[in-house]
Amino acid sequence: MNRYFVMGTLLCFCCALPSYGEDYGAKRHKMVEEVLADLAANGNPAPSPDVVKAMEKVKRHRFVPDWLTRFAYINRPLPIGHGQTISQPVIVALMTDLIEVKAGDKVLEIGTGSGYQAAVLAEIVKSVYSMEIIEPLGKEAAERLAALGYGNVQVKLGDGYYGWPAEAPFDAIVVTAAASHVPPPLIAQLKPGGRMVIPLGAQFMTQYLMLVEKRPDGSVSSRQVIPVGFVPLTGGH
Amino acid sequence: MPADRMPRPPFFAIGLLSGCLLAYEIALTRLFSMVLWHHFAYMIISAAMLGYGASGTALTLLRERIAPHFSTAFLATAAMLALTMPLSFLLAQQIPFNPLELLWDTSQLPKLLAIYLLVVLPFFFGGAGIGLVLWRFGMQAGRVYAADIFGAGAGSLGVVALLFFMSPSDLLMVLAALALLAAAIAAIELKAQPGWLAKFFLVLALPAIAAAHAGWLKIHPSPYKDLSQTLNISGTRVIEERPGPLGDVSVVESTRIPFRYAPGMSLNALDEPPPQLEMFVDGNGPTVLTRFDGNLAPLAHLGQLTSALPYHVLGSPAIGTHRAHGPYVLVLGAGAGADVLQALYYRAGSVDAVELDRNIIDLVRNRFGDFSGNLYKRPDVRVHEGEARGFASARLGHYDLIQVALLDSFGVASAGLYGLSESYLYTVEALQTYLGHLAPDGVLSITRWLTLPPRDSLKLFATAIAALEKSGVPDPGRRLAMIRGWKTVTLLVKNSEFSPDEIAAIREFSRTRSFDPGYYPGMLPEEANRYNLLAQPYFYESAIALLGPGSQDFIDRYKFNIEPATDDRPYFFRFFKWDAAVELFSLRQQGGMALLDWSYPLLVATLIQAVLASILLILVPLAASQSRQALPPASAALYFLAIGFAFMFMEIAFIQKFILFLSHPLYALAVVLCAFLVFAALGSWLAGRKQGRAAEARSVTTAIIALGAVALLYLAFLPGLFSALIHLPDPAKILISAALIAPPGICMGIPFPTGMARLACTLPDAIPWAWAINGFASVVGAVLASLLAVHLGFTAVILLAVALYGLACVAIRRGFA
Predict the structure, then answer these.
(1) What's this model's pTM, rounded to 2 decimal places?
(2) Is A180 considered catalytic here?
């Protein structure tokens, strides 16, 4: 009886152990390779080397709840609490690539979530301004990003509708929070030539990405990008 | 106590128990709709039947032990029903099941199965109680069965009434108290000893009533539901809640961060919506209530939505045309009034607004009357409580514009959760009805969410073409126009051909708001993809293909189901095709699952689960037990299998036919179900009076022949009869429905008790087998009926039921010896 008890306790202990010593670097590399293969399979152009480098570097397992770290490098969305999710890596790569950011850029993010997208952007650009409407999420993300050394990310709690006028204009804007429409102030805070990306669909199910481009003359156009290489008509279209 | 010393079966207790079970089934459907999403309704129906079936098996296995303690066993089943109704739901809520992760995470499946099995428990105990009495009083099966289904019929009406006053979670506690009351009544009816048992059960019921009153049983909605997501925002709170059978309405205000709901507003717009409140029904939504003080200027954002297009086509005075008066508008699905405000913004002459939920009407009209600027009390706005399709069918007036509002939420619609909801709003016949109520130059306008690759909008376009063709319009393409923004699509169907001025208005409206025309008569291909760029001009190309000679070929080759929905197959939201599903599943890593309409595979999974669970829980235990020696003859097995399937097929299909007539899904369901069950009870009662094999076989044959004849007659004449009578007031329609249901209802009530009585004479030990086989057929039949309706239509389901009854007729004539 005692023997079974000890074995059971040990088993529970082993299961509960955080995954210290796991080779996350290798897992991350494998995930990035999968993402690249998926993007290629879908007919998307290869993301820029900056995006690939950032995805290779950001520790996704630090942006998911502890009990989900073993799934952190699987190409799937994960719950992060408060009814929110961390996007699927392939969607993060695609979104980051679509806004064509480069070193020296200033980016606004509406919907910090766990902070993963902000961290990926922070690896590429000069500064990221991120706003979160759900207070506990925003606080946790700010602490996490600071702890991971992302000094170029500022997180503010509150209403993202009016953007961050003090730091406007932005080279790019990422809107990950669900919205019924694109707030006009955000378009106003986008630099001419700047790009904004918005994922659309239910939680866990990004259906398409909307890319808003502001032309040099200030007019805007949008492009809807379906992440999946899926042609709706048999025999091509 | 031996049966011969018992006074009579506990008819009142059986009736009450059965009523509790049916009410529980409906309450559970509502609870799952609040906690998750409503497509789990199928799972609940099948769980109910599985509980019944498994109870038959348990009775067979335990009958030797139970026989000497009938009264105690019966009272125990009632008490267990009372206990498990709230308890199983409480436990099911503890399981962290997330349907949105179902396709990502295999660990969700066992969680779903665990919920399913928990939900089965009350049905198991309730079914065991009824089965016990049927078995014990086999010779009086007709009357026991009559009490059973009469109680169920009363329960179906009672639960709808109760849901007006209390939330479904409180209702569970009330039902627990009623089940204890049934136990108390049974103790009296069965003269159970000790004599204080009845009082004991009554005392036990008191805490349940107190718990209901105190709202003890809390529900925990999924954090991914719209309301949960909204309440995450600091400064938001629910300021009003109204329970109701159509769904609990919650009104939310946000004190720190204003709601600004303007779905798909043009990217060129600079307007910010005025202060709003959001309303959620069962946590889904929102429909917004906008502050209005009579000043139209703050509503400018409503002119920046794709749904504003018809006002520009009609030349509303608000846009500076010479039209003397604003259009007469009918808004179908008015919700909290966004589309009504849009009509007022465009200076509508008058507005008829139709809303199904009386709670929402009352909230806008009274509780938030000041906030809404007394929108629903204005002399130029007439609000009607009713279902959109039924209202349109019964209406005799002609409108310049019929606006079908966008009421389902984007998240739910895009996640394919509506795939198996019947909707009579977007069928070919519905569009014909709307067109019939338009003025000669009137416009029907329907706005849907943009889905990519296109689904809803193309299905709607195909449906409109079919409706126009069916109405004898030679060139439908001259009467159709479609535009798309970045998030919404609006389709216009005109009652005459679009004029050059109207086409110019469509182009101008689209250009100034950066919306893309998807189609209009004479449109050039280069106009199709300018502002919201797609990889291909899907909408234009598809519209042209649908209007061309190869339309059917295009529909067949399209990877989503865009075949027009009809009243016989009213599944507008079902886009599922197996080939595409396989391809999307292979692309799941790349995000393919987001494009999958997964309520259909969920139904197939439920069917498989129902078959496996009923084999494992009903048939296998029987086969492995001593009972295999009491196996019924093949003819009896076939008989109970056939009538189990046929009853479910007939009931489900006819309910759908009557829902269209009574124009109100929930009340119609309650009335029709009640009428079916009460008349079936009458049939059973009558059947109980027939004795002897020949008489029984004759009565079944007569009933089945009559049923077949009535079913065929109804299939031929009901649609015409309904459209002729749909304008009558509701009480008259209810009476007509009850009269029409009486003949098939009575006939359907006869075969089961007659078969049971026959078996009681020849092979009484095989009765639990018959109960189990019938339960199995009902479990599978409930789900199969829906699946068959999706593919073949309700007419085919009824014909199949008639054939199955015919098979049963042959079986009973061969005898059960």
Answers:
(1) 0.86
(2) no
